[in-house]
């Protein structure tokens, strides 16, 4: 019978994961149970993805704001700390900021504008034009910002992040000054001791600060890169990728995930005889057209994946073939011509006209985005995603 369904994506339910749980066993059992109950057959090149959250929970990779404060105080001492380029997020940054404030004497908070790194807007860019403000050159004080734009609440959260972040710092009796600039060097006019909180541009920011007179320069990836008095930690990413856990703690991005995905792949091979690819995923890499939020607030989409997920797609554009190479064909003859073209396509289609418009991204970024959109971040209860047919094409 002719195949009429291509890629199939299923969100799998599993038990609530807690510290110390055997995550490998839970994932494998969940996949096998789903296959039995739903009546699908596990095949070679199927993909199992699991959200970073359940991995970190099983690892017990947590830290309190006191742990953060201790690390900040150890690194900066009595110095005024410049906290620059944080993202605007109660879930992602509020508890981190509270920990920073608790470990500091004074904070100069420098916010990028009109939006943060991942697209959360403080102010609409059209308002900047209206007020004659150039975000690439103009440095604003809090009063100047308010005089220009007033009090603006976030589209989705209803939070005035300037007021909110300032209140979190002052909660600990710490003096806070707020400024607005997109130039990292601006903060050096206020303090030479800086904690840069950007995610994907952090290495450049630290390099610029150090080259222009910065003294104590750290990123969020340097905070809790090692355990502080028994806390969780992440040696590669520190606090990057962490989320609020309780009112006084955060869950860190999981660490040392490669043995986990390799072991799950091996166990599934032993139980099914099939070679299934496995990856851990965090935020997908996509942009919301309404809120303008670029979703990727984790340091990477996938901290670990099996070898078969390395690389990028090597695909041709079907509609290009139909409109150009085989424009005079129809029906079964067209189908056969396209199928033959795909079967004989080059192993590397970079630069080929037939590949234009296909997605030039890493497989793990594409699959991670697909998984993140499927599992969601709320109450679906499907932190394991099972994907079939992803590597198939028109001929299979």
From TrEMBL:
In terms of superkingdom, the source organism counts as Bacteria
Query: Lineage from the top down?
Result: Bacteria, Bacillati, Bacillota, Bacilli, Bacillales
Q: Which UniProt keywords apply?
A: Ligase
Q: What is this protein called?
A: F420-0--gamma-glutamyl ligase
The Coenzyme F420:L-glutamate ligase-like domain sits at: 11-389
In Pfam terms, one family for this protein is: F420_ligase
Which Gene Ontology terms cover its molecular function? Answer: ligase activity
Q: Which Gene3D superfamilies does the record cross-reference, listed alphabetically?
A: CofE-like (3.30.1330.100)
Species of the source: Psychrobacillus lasiicapitis
